[in-house]
Structure formats: C-alpha cells, structure tokens
Amino acid sequence: MESTDLFRQIAFIKEVDKLKYILRRTKLFNSDRNENDAEHSWHLALMALVLAEHANVAVDLLKVIKMLLIHDLVEIDAGDTFIYDTQKSHDNTEEERKAAHRIFGLLPNHQAQELMAVWEEFEEGQTDEAKFARAMDRLEPLLQNTSNNGGTWTEFDVDYEKVYAKKQVIQRGSKVIWQYAEQLINDSVDKGILKKKDV
Hints:
11 helices, single chain, two-stranded antiparallel sheet, mainly alpha, 62% helix
C-alpha cells in the first residue's frame, strides 16, 4: 500500500469522527438523552448482525453492515433531517449526494468508489441488502419511542398514520420483523402514546 493511501484513509477516519456530534431527535432507550448518529449507526449494524436470520431472503451481511455504518455519514455536512419533518423531505437530496462525494472522496479512489456505490444502493433501497438495512433503520427509532412513552411521537405530535406509513418499509426487508413492529405500533395506540387522527 502506498503511504499516500494510508494518509487519505487516516484523513477519512478523522473526518468521520464528526458523526459523533450529529444529534438525532430520538432518545436512547429509557432515557432523555438524544442519540447521536454514530451511536445510531453502530446500533443498526449490531441489530443487523443479530436479526439477519429474519430477513425475507438471505442477504450479504457484510454489505448490509457496510450500508448501516456509512449511510448517515452524509449528515456530517447535510445534518440530520427528522423523518417526520413537515418542511424538508427525509428522502435523499442533492445536498446529501454532494456530501457523500466529499466525504468518501477523502479515501483512495477504489475505496471511495466502493463506499459511494454502497451508499447509493442503500438510498435506492431496491436490493435485498438495502431493503433489510432500511428495515433496521426504521426499526430502531420505533423501539426507542416505545421505550420512551412515545418519545418523538409525543414531542412532535406525530400521529399513528404517519408512523405506520413510514414504518411499513420494514416489511420489504423482513415480514417477520414487520409483524413485531406493527404489533408495537398498535400497542402504542392502545396505551395512548400514539394517537390516531380524529375522524
């Protein structure tokens, strides 16, 4: 390996440390402390490792873990957009793509191209690996909010219909986990911590 590659890799490693400073709206389990993006990414990767047997089809677990560890690195530049934000779309933006090129571009070209491709694959959400990775990304905040008596749902007045619509993507990666998640959502309604729209 050329020493210039090592210098570029170290520069990338130093840069992505900034992910630890990006706060999310969701809070840690049974806590009032906001989670940061690095904690979120680590937790999702571990969840995938533990829950992979429940994927709809066998997945390349290493690729899934790569997706989960890098998917939010763009938020170093673009910031975290709340999934229920009514002003700004949570979907991939040109701002995030620009951030991906800058951050992954710190690496040697072969690694930059690989991680950019993995990031794009996650964002497009069409492969089996991306579907399962995105299921993990939607499951963790659901677990957090149910552990925190509604969490961000209560704090930002998010209703059942919005939660259900956003969480349904879980079934594309795992029908088994979706059944569990759907039950948690329904239980949250029964407990009064998630409200349905007035009809």
